[in-house]
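quick one, 400 residues, struct below
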Amino acid sequence: MGASQALYIILSCTEPPEIFNCPRQSSALQLGRMSSIILETPTVASVETHTMGNSLFEYLRMKVHPEIQQREWKRIIVLGGHVRTGGTQISAIEKNDKPFNWQRPTAKVVDVDTIHLFCFPGIDYVKHYAAILATYLSLNEKDPKVVSYEVPSSAESMRPLLQSNLQELGRIEIAVLGYVQGLPLFTSASWTGGEDELFSWQIGNLPNGGRVAFIGCRVSFWGDIAGNVVRALQQLSQVKCVLYVGKLGTLRPELSPNTLLATGNSSFVHGELLTWQNPLEPFFRASPTIRHGRHYTLPSVLDETKDWLAERSGDTDWVDPEIGHMAKASLDGNTKFGFLHIISDNLARKYKHDLSSERVEEVLQNRENIVGEIQRVLQELFEAGRFAQNRLGIAIVYSD
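---
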């Protein structure tokens, strides 16, 4: 896992700006003239140094845009932007057999040697996808140095969220994010929000006049994007509590993937340990399925090297790209935050399944079995408010 190195290049744009359909307001591409921008070199992982070992091949194959797999390029530049029109090529391997988290980076051929990949804007997502492309090329004995990236600014990252259909959501007390389509106890009705919109949701009513929203997102809100989603909900919907249901990796070798749930109230973010009060905590009881631990927020799966594992073993139990960012945004905005995640992979010990086999029927069935425990915890939290104020300070009732 090497440090990124900044490099400077000159891009020449002779086409009018609209040809590129680039969302960046200040980039050289948008200006349509000679200009300099700063690009960075991504992480390149290897089978020998990464905790996934040979599983890296399949994990990457599922992620790489077909335009990169089908031909060689002299320049591959990853940029932040939600661009799905104007001549961009949507990936043929998008998993659009599910309602959420299926839109993937798109490609735009600039010239015979150059291709741009557009990720939904977020620093971690751009870095992660650039690392995916560079590592894929390296493992296939091609030059990873052709890949570079430019990180989006904070304003560029927030803009598509603030301009999305979240503006139509209205005021809510609680937001449940992540794997909401897998919670049939609460999301068996119709979704509000069209297929061409970023978000869809289902609403439960609160007796105090407020609402709880189960919100799904069609893009992957990877890394710091997740924190920005919390900020957007704070700004647009005055959310009081965010609950995140998803998946993460574990550094504890004894924990079998896809059979247990992880939670906690602390995370390392950029080396700083954040702690908070998890509003779900009173409802875990002595569950045999739920494990508590300390979390580490890591920008990319490609950063999960054997060296990193050795360094963090003993003081870190969980790893994923989002939890710490959501916690920080919640702390900054005086919003409560809790998470309850499926343990999807084990970095410290090789099990039958990992991130390269998530679509296997056995994995899907095992995850479906333990989702029932997530629903139990949420249901008890909701029901606790029918007769008394719960730990969130509001009374909660879910209505169909």
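Confidence is low (pLDDT under 50) at residues 1-35, 386-400.
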